[in-house]
């Protein structure tokens, strides 16, 4: 359901950090991607099956606001939810919280557009709308 938050977990490894041991800023987009995939799976949406039917998704916009650093060995909770659903787009929002002290580290959003194999926008399938 739109507005329902889903939580996924991320542990910070050395490869995620810069030379100071702080999460490299662009890695949050990867965390958003993983969390979004887990959210969709949780809602019963099979992306490979949609792809076989010629229904794909592309990120059209991404925004991130950095609040406080996450560091090597931190464990994070990534809270994902659907903010809105349009004719051919879905807006997701994210909150990333450091588990040990419940500190907000990042907020963000992504806009996904439903596209065909030829990268043309198409309407969201009704079955997908019902699951979101």
Structure write-up:
It is a single chain. The chain has helices spanning 27-42, 47-52, 126-131; strands at 6-11, 56-66, 75-85, 89-98, 103-115. The chain is of the alpha+beta class. It has a single domain (6-131), classed as Thiol Ester Dehydrase, Chain A (Roll), CATH 3.10.129.10. It has a five-stranded antiparallel β-sheet. A hairpin with a 4-residue loop joins β4 and β5. The longest helix is centred in the N-terminal third of the chain and has 16 residues, at 27-42. The relative contact order is 0.24.
CATH topological fold name: Thiol Ester Dehydrase, Chain A
The main β sheet shows up as: 5 strands, antiparallel
What is the overall silhouette? elongated
**Total helical segments:** 3
Question: What structural class do helix, strand and pairing data support?
Answer: alpha+beta
Unreliable stretches covering 5 or more consecutive residues: none
User: Which homologous superfamily in CATH is the superfamily?
Assistant: Hotdog Thioesterase
State mean pLDDT (0 to 100 scale): 94
Strand order of the largest sheet: 1-3-4-5-2
* CATH class type: Alpha Beta
Share of residues in strands = 35-45%
- Can you tell me the CATH architecture? Roll
Output the helix-strand order: EHHEEEEH
Measured between the Cα atoms of the first and last residue, the distance is 5 Å
Radius of gyration: 16 Å
Number of strands: 5
Name the helicity range.
10-25%
What is the domain total for the residues? 1
């Amino acid at each position: 359901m739109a507005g329902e938050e889903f939580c996924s977990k991320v542990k910070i490894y050395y490869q995620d950090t810069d030379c100071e041991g702080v999460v490299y800023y662009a890695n949050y987009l990867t965390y958003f991607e993983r969390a979004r995939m887990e959210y969709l799976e949780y809602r019963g949406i099979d992306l490979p099956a949609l792809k076989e039917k010629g229904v794909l998704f592309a990120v059209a916009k991404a925004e991130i606001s950095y609040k406080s650093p996450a560091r090597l060995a931190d464990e994070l909770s990534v809270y994902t939810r659907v903010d809105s659903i349009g004719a051919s787009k879905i807006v997701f929002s994210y909150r990333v919280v450091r588990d040990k002290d419940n500190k907000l580290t990042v907020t963000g959003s992504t806009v996904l557009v439903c596209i065909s194999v030829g990268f043309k926008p198409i309407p969201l399938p009704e079955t997908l709308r019902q699951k979101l």
